[in-house]
Each structure stands twice: as structure tokens, then as C-alpha cells.
């Protein structure tokens, strides 16, 4: 009986914690710091990218990371991603071609440079990506 009470207490605690995080999360904007292509060894690309981002909350800078699909960047446009003979990644779009991971990252950052995230105000280092933004978020002249 004691074991059951302890077990139910722990389950209740984690359920309440998950529910409480869902209520208190705050929407915020973050700047994309780096975009990396995801690969499987030796030479298979995954259809997603690894994103590191930073955001400013309460006078501090916090960093986060997450994954997004490449289709989020391109929409309905067909693309091909493969290695060439020199083992450099090549991204082919209908009218453009990019060789090397640095050129691909620069192109993707040119399309989207900010994301919206949810973060926890009590533990601001916990965040999750919501979606991408094509325009920079900045201060406007009044």
C-alpha cells in the first residue's frame, strides 16, 4: 500500500509539472545562430536541419537548439540534397544550386533568420521551437 501511495504521488507530480509548464510558457522570438544539415553515416542526408538559436530574456542571453524539416524552409518547392564526388553536400533547387554546407547555411539564413519559441519564465533555459519567420524582428522608430 505504501508503494502505491508513493507511485501515485510521483505520477501526480510529473503530470502536474507537465500541465503547469503548458500553462506558464511564454511565446518569444529568437535569432538563428547556426544551421547544420543532419546526416547518417556514411553519406545519407536526413530531411531535417539542426538549429541552434539564442534569445534574450530578463537581461540574460540563453541558447537553445532543435530540429526543423527542410520543407519548412522551402514550402512546396522540390529540392535535392546529395553529396558530390568531392563529398561536399549539394543542394539543388529549381533555379539554384549550392555547394558546401557553409553556402547552404548562408542561403537558409537569408530566407529565415528568426524563429518563434516557447520558453518557461521560471526556467528560461527550457525552450521549444514553434515556427520560422522570414523577417527580422527589431525596434521601430516611433
What's the helix-strand series? HEEEHEEEHEE
Number of helices: 3
Quaternary organization? single chain
Shape: elongated
Determine the mean pLDDT.
Answer: 85
Low-confidence stretches: none
Structural class: alpha+beta
Q: Largest sheet at a glance? A: 5 strands, antiparallel
Share of residues in helices: 25-40%
Q: Count every beta strand, where a strand is a DSSP E run of 2 or more residues.
A: 8
Strand content: 35-45%
Q: What is the total domain count?
A: 1
Rg, please? 20 Å
Distance between the termini: 66 Å
Strand order of the largest sheet: 3-2-1-7-8
Task: Outline the fold blueprint.
Blueprint: H1 2-24, E1 26-40, E2 44-57, E3 60-69, H2 70-74, E4 80-83, E5 89-92, E6 97-99, H3 101-111, E7 114-119, E8 127-133
Antiparallel strand pairs: 1-2, 1-7, 2-3, 4-5, 5-6, 7-8
Short description:
The protein is 27% helix and 44% strand.
Would you give an account of this structure?
This protein has one domain. Helix content is 27%, strand content 44%. With 142 residues, the chain is an alpha+beta fold. The model has no long low-confidence stretch (mean pLDDT 85). The strands form two sheets. It has a five-stranded antiparallel β-sheet with strand order 3-2-1-7-8. A three-stranded antiparallel β-sheet has the order 4-5-6, covered by helices on one side.
Amino acid at each position: 500500500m505504501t508503494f502505491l501511495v508513493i507511485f501515485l504521488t510521483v505520477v501526480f507530480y510529473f503530470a502536474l509539472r507537465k500541465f503547469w509548464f503548458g500553462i506558464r510558457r511564454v511565446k518569444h522570438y529568437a535569432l538563428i545562430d547556426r544551421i547544420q544539415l543532419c546526416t547518417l553515416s556514411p553519406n545519407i542526408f536526413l530531411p531535417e536541419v539542426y538549429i541552434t538559436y539564442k534569445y534574450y530574456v530578463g537581461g540574460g542571453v540563453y541558447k537553445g537548439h532543435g530540429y526543423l524539416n527542410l520543407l519548412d524552409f522551402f514550402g512546396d518547392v522540390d529540392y535535392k540534397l546529395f553529396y558530390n564526388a568531392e563529398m561536399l553536400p549539394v543542394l539543388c533547387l529549381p533555379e539554384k544550386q549550392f555547394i558546401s554546407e557553409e553556402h547552404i547555411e548562408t542561403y537558409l539564413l537569408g530566407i529565415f533568420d528568426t524563429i518563434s519559441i516557447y520558453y518557461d519564465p521560471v526556467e528560461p533555459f527550457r525552450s521549444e521551437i514553434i515556427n520560422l519567420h522570414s523577417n527580422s524582428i527589431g525596434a521601430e522608430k516611433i
